[in-house]
Amino acid sequence: MKPLIVANWKMNPATLEEAKNLFDQVKETGAVICPPFVYLSALRANGAQDCFWEEKGAFTGEISAQMLKDLGVEYVILGHSERRKYQKETDEIISKKIKAALGAGLKVILCIDRISQIKKDLQEIENWKLKIENLTVAYEPLFAIGTGKACPPERAEKMKIAVKKFLGPDTPVLYGGSVNSQNAGEYVKDAGFDGLLVGGASLKPVEFIDIIKNVC
Ligand code: 13P
Questions:
Q1: Which of 6, 50, 197 maximizes ligand 1 atoms within 8 Å of its Cβ, making it the mutation to test the pocket?
Q2: Which of 7, 57, 97, 120 could in theory staple to 202 by disulfide, Cβ–Cβ 3.0 to 4.6 A?
Q3: Residue 92, domain extent
Q4: CB of residue 47 inside a 6 A radius of ligand 1
Q5: CATH number of the domain that residue 158 is part of
Q6: If you measure from the C-alpha of residue 154 to the centroid of ligand 1, how many angstroms do you get, rounded to a whole number?
Q7: Is the beta carbon of 137 within 6 A of some atom in ligand 1?
Q8: Is 53 contained in some domain?
Q9: pTM for the predicted model, two decimal places
Q10: pLDDT digit string (tens) for 168-189?
Q11: Which of the residues are catalytic?
């Protein structure tokens, strides 16, 4: 299968004009592009960085999974370590969000940095062993995120094997953390990851396109 390459723009770029410019350069790559919410409708991007667990109501500042679906979004990142850290998202909250996202027909990219999070993050989903065909797991070790210190591929591969042992061999597993065009192939071609979740390098169009060229 073709590797799944996901761009997590985080809270970048600073202006809509820059976002349009960046998007125009990478939109033909087939990657999932996850911009900030406020750029989604202008770009018609296929990925989002979060969603709320309720369908509607008095939840100031929140965005529902169905609202994303209505905009044409296909994938949503949930459980990113930056949300666990800055928004104090717990496994219980993440689990409710996963349930809502899968219920709205979105594909979920669940970020973890250790195996024990998977079971907790799926606690809200009854019979989850039978219902996770729209789930992708992204292994993002904390020490590798935004540090330039990518995880050694052999070490990351052990996590990939552990995730597939837990969720089944068909669950796609991505690697994320200081991915660049030099190391991308080591994760996909050598360590056998199903794709990549790219932060900083996804904001540099030439570098991002090189990542895709080096793994496809
Ligand atoms: P970097 O690629 O900047 O390390 O970020 C990884 C990440 O958090 C993607 O979700």
A1: 197
A2: 7
A3: 4-21+31-215
A4: no
A5: 3.20.20.70
A6: 19
A7: no
A8: yes
A9: 0.98
A10: 999 999 999 999 999 999 999 9
A11: 80, 140
